[in-house]
Amino acid sequence: MSAADNIATILSSGARLTVPLAFAACGEYVAQRAGTLNISVEAMMLGAAFGSIAVASATGSATIGLVAGALVGVAVAFVHGILSHRVQINTFVVGLVLNALVLGLTSYLITVSTFTGHQVWQVDIPVLRDIPIVGPMLFVQRWPVYLLLAVIPLTWWLVERSRWGLELRAVGENPQAADVSGIEVNKRRRQALLWCGLLAGLGGAYLAVGEVGSFNQNMTAGRGYLVIAAVIFGAWRLGRTLIGCVVFGLADAMRLALPALGVTMNSQLLIAAPYLLALLAMLVFATTHREPRALAQPFQRGTT
Amino acid sequence: MATLGIDGTGQRLLRRLNPGPGGWQVGLATVATIGVALGLSALLIAVTGGSPTASTKALYQGSMASPAAWSTSLLYVAPLLLVAVGACVSARSGFFNIGQEGQVLIGALAGAWVGLRLAVPGPLLLVLVLLASVVGAGIWAGLSALMYRFRGVNVVVSTMLMTFLAQQLISFAVNTPWLLQESRLGRGTLSPQSNPVPENARLTSLGEYPNLQLNGGLVLAVVVAVVLALVMARTRWGFRLKMVGLNPATARHAGVRVGALGGIALAISGALAGLAGALLLTSPVGTNRLQPGMSLNIGWDGLLVALVARNNPLLAIPVAVLFGVLRAGGSFLAATGVPSFLVDVVKALLVLAFVAPPVVIGMLRRRRLADQPSTPTSTPTAPPAATAAPTPTAPPAAAASTDPADTSAPVAGSAQAEPAGSTAPVPGPRSTAPPPADPGDAGNKDAMEGRLA
């Protein structure tokens, strides 16, 4: 293996590890811009990963499994939205409980049932894949990876250019003002959560039917929290959030690849790096007030 | 009220027994939701081919059937209770700490370091281990408070992120020979764990009651819970804490140093989680070694205990017993063919069953009040004149004030901070008007009930 091959391997495995993060990060980004710091993204991803394998196993089609996984994500988001933005239970409480519930439920169900593995088909472009270093990373991937190329601009357009996104950002920055101007604050937040659930579900489902082809207990292993860290690291801008995902994905790929290459490096530091970076980013950006002003503040009319 | 001073205790007792408007509804609804939660769990077992009755029996046998089973359950209760009490303190102050899982590990790390490195004779070593865990985890949680104080970093986010740092820190410590990794004589690979802490740094059981073993940790945890309950309900500091939690802006206007108080609350909650970590290290619940997985999710579960107990340290005692019993029983489930993960499902459903009813009923009551013809929904809700200027911040989410024991505090100056039951008008005749489109937004004056957790 030449050095170029090694780099190509790390890059392409980094890309694969980035994709689920990037899907979910697009969703979490929208939710946080609406002011709801959604920590049940872990539950959305894990539930979707399980749902996609279960449905793929039942129907024999990985693609239907992918869609079902996204729907599981939406379902978790729906429950979260109702509980925290209609009934107004503290959103962190809801998130923690949903994370615990989905982890317990999927662990239970995977122990009592057996599923056959399924994987979505792989795109393999003949000539382009031979480009040195970046070829395998860009042109040999499972097809949902290319869906991401549509999701990112769509998310950007929704938040930054659409009427809905404008209202969404207003809700995240100043819910009282948004309310007075006729926007239903909690409804917008629930909608943002649904979008988050859809994308986090896609990310989780990609992990199961795209990357691994099966489900194992606690499969997401904290990726949801990593996504939250990415949005914070990205200072609530979509581009930087995605850069964060790439950095985290590469760190993960290096942790997996370096021992095989004979390089000893502190794996704990590599695992901890994303969280450390997110904390540092928060410390640095604190004075610039990048975060949505009403982030993590519940809204109830008449309680300024 | 002034003339009733002679019978203050009786008054307090009466007030405590009176559930307040909507109280009975909350109680009944909670019973119903618990039924639903247990029913769903039974359904889950049945659908997946297990037997609900056999599972229940196994749960009972593993946790309560014999003194030995009780001993196991109670071993889990102590750390759960400590974490929960800490969570109560921080949630009351509105500085919501969700990093207990990491703080438990840091406490265990500090305790293990002291226990293995200091050669101190006798039970003094145990005291030092416990102290080290308290100090270590207190500082760890205090870092979040500092980040909030000086850079405005969201406490929930920083405590959550630091959990993952703590996990890697432990992993590093037990994988590094010069830190805490075990030293083995002879050949063989070293496991990622520390040496066991010495005998004189272990918590032993207090006396033998035929087979039932009461570990010293349990006594410690209960004492801590009672003391903190008293402090929060009866002291000026406890009152300020609640005030900060219900409305930090009002508290600031009243002269409370919000940041300092919240920081202390956060450090206390971290310190108690750390003490729980020390219990896991020193009591016979595990292997007495520092291991990456030794926290056993006690941090997350303790947080759930506090949620179910509505941030009341005394209520946390029975809830912690319930969770300890479920935990101990879970290990017996596998024999019946039902995975022990079932216990996690039951726990999460139970938490929802306890948390949802008061919030839902509070919402319905507000909606009814908003519908009353005598109360125009469009009335802007100005805060009471004497309290404070209109404040830009909404109250932090986690301030639960369903504890009626606290109503005795003299809350004259801050009508907004008064708990449910004393300010809420009695619901009037039902209106037949259709509910507003979004009940969560219904405008009203007692939206400050703070029943959020």
Automatic annotation (TrEMBL), chain A:
It comes from the Bacteria. Keywords: Cell membrane, Membrane, Transmembrane, Transmembrane helix. The chain crosses the membrane at residues 48-79, 91-110, 143-159, 192-209, 221-238, 245-263, 269-287. Its main location: membrane. It is a multi-pass membrane protein. The keyword Transmembrane applies. InterPro entries: ABC_transp_permease (IPR001851). Pfam families: BPD_transp_2 (PF02653). The keyword Metal-binding does not apply. It is found in: Cell membrane. This is ABC transporter permease. It comes from Micromonospora antibiotica.
